[in-house]
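Supplementary notes for students who missed Thursday's class. We covered one full example, reproduced here. Read the sequence, then the structure, then the short commentary at the end.
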Amino acid sequence: KQQLDELKELAEALNYDYTEQKFDIVTGDVISLDGSNWTNIFTINCGTESGIKVGDAVVNGIGLIGKVEETGEGWSKVMSLIDEGSKVSFKLARDRKQLGVVSGNEKGEVSGYMIDGEALVSEGDVIITSGLSEEEATIKAIEAGLEIGSVKSVTYNSNTLLKEITVELAVNFKSLDKVAVIL
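Structure (token representation):
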């Protein structure tokens, strides 16, 4: 409710009609599984003819899957969140001022850290995309608020002075058939 009130206030200040905001979405089927860990990178059956561009976010009805890494006529390669090259900034759903970064690893898991070493993060906290983009490997900034998963564990790293987290992903990557690309 607090976030909705803040957004309405901001919309009024900017004279922005948020009811006109629409996202274009293209749906596709997973047609090919690539790489040694087949869920890291996969191909879908839609591409540039549908308006898909590199960096577009890929989701399903549950949450964020990854981003378009490469595209052409009739196909797009998607890098999933669990790929080692994937990196996404996030915020806690319950406290959107608490920011962090997660990335995939060689085991097909996702882990990361809170930017503030004193962040109040707990097991079970839901994390969502922050909408911040600082490098090419990150989901583009327009895709804020997509669910990534929930915090599975929190540890404090005394060397880096950061709270590190492991994530239970919202999406089951072993049963992907249909996806949607947010243009």
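Commentary. The mean pLDDT is 84. Residues 75 and 169 are 26 Å apart (CA to CA). If anything here is unclear, bring it to office hours.
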